[in-house]
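To: structure subgroup
Subject: Chain for Friday's discussion

All,

I'm putting the inputs and outputs inline so they're searchable in the archive.
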Amino acid sequence: MNKDEVKAFAERIYRDAAGAMAVGMGYLGEKTGLFAALADGAPVSAAALAARTGLAVRYVEEWCAGMAAAGWLEVDEEAKTFRLPEEHAFLLASRGTDHFMGGLFLAVVSLLALAPRLARCFREGGGIPPEAYDEDWLEAVDLMNGGAYRERLASYWLAQLPEIRARLEAGGRALDLGCGAGEAAMALARAFPRSEVLGVDPDARVIERARGAARERGLQNIRFLEGTIEAVPEAPLFDLVALLDCLHDLAEPEATLRAVRARLAPGGVLFVMEPRAGDRISENAHPLGVTYYGLSLFHCTTQSLARGGPGLGTCAGPERITELLRRAGFVEVRALPIKSFTNIFFAASG
């Protein structure tokens, strides 16, 4: 046995454990408002930060020390102050934007709480059903994707489909299948006020959230429906159907895609967004790939298996997604040249 390799691997385990702890502290920073309170970038003592946020001083002291040790905060040990650099605030104190990363902290903490239950699934089979995921998870999904939907979907992403944009501008119909809290559907309704937009999701909790948000924003051309594609009437047909970060979650992906195809108007397009994962493990051997495998185990794969699905997983990859779309009857399937560090995009028609 090579002792140097043992030592190096032990250091890697500590480094990965430190990353998990840093994310846990990141969760606390987001949930308690500490990152937001540091957003101005000014140096502040832990006591002053605690007073600013109304939090217990001793916890804030330890949190600041831990975040500084992790390199998330800068520390001046002489002055005993901490600051959040502008570049870090861009990612940590920017809730609602397309570059905010705080949703990931909520996701990781929420999912890891399910580890004992998932371990039982390893031994007994089955999976964790969607209703088992807590409110932090629902909020995390919205925070991770909502900003991009609001800022990019109707403008940059759909610019790749000019004929569909023209239809929606003139007064077409759009379906967001697996709509979650409805941010993508509402972005479409806001950008194309002449169109009718339908958001569909089987989780009653997110549908209720979506309906409330649509009412608050005064959107009249949108409605939300609890259910799956089978709950969507076969007529009238849709010019655009969106499957955003959820095709790999489906319990019956091929049957769902066939039902989607049957609900597309002539010339209509299915727009698919999936995680940017490679088709081979070696292509995913990097931090984002490892994160995706974790999300897959703790959510995407297991909740599909819980409903008798195939458990395609977060890292299904472009080859498998393309093959699945073609097997479902789509004649033309093409990858779209949309720049994104985290996602890949497809258009399917015919």
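Points worth raising on Friday:
DSSP finds 14 helices and nine strands in the chain.
The beta strands are 74-76, 81-83, 173-177, 196-201, 222-226, 238-244, 264-275, 332-335, 343-349.

D.
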